Amino acid sequence: TDLVEAGCQVVALDGTFRLREHMDGPSFIRHIKSNHQVNLLADVSTLEEGLACLDAGADAVATTLSGYTPGHQGAQRNMPDFKLLKKLVDHLGEQIPVIAEGRINTPELAREAIGLGAWAVVAGTAITRPQTITKWYKDAIKA
Hints:
143 residues, 7 helices
């Protein structure tokens, strides 16, 4: 509620099925929407979570948490989850924006995400963490 009261026009939140304070993401979205007028961006890790967040009233979804939730940690930790992005676009894209976020660290990956139907792309670490970018170069040179 602090973010809403501060005047934020969009608030991103964990839209996964993980429980926090006795509520999963979709339940939390319903709770916020019933008490406040604010646009909510649900960070999800699966299509099922995206569908549940849409049903709960989310105004947009993002692939942000793909690969970071229990039971959904996989080999794709070093690449964007384009399979999830495509599923979300196919099932939700006509109703709400689907945002590609997570491990999109080159212009080519951003272009691919847009080509798959992403409404927007979050570059995140690729532009905000110089120490991480330096490590990418170091690791590539060592390899």
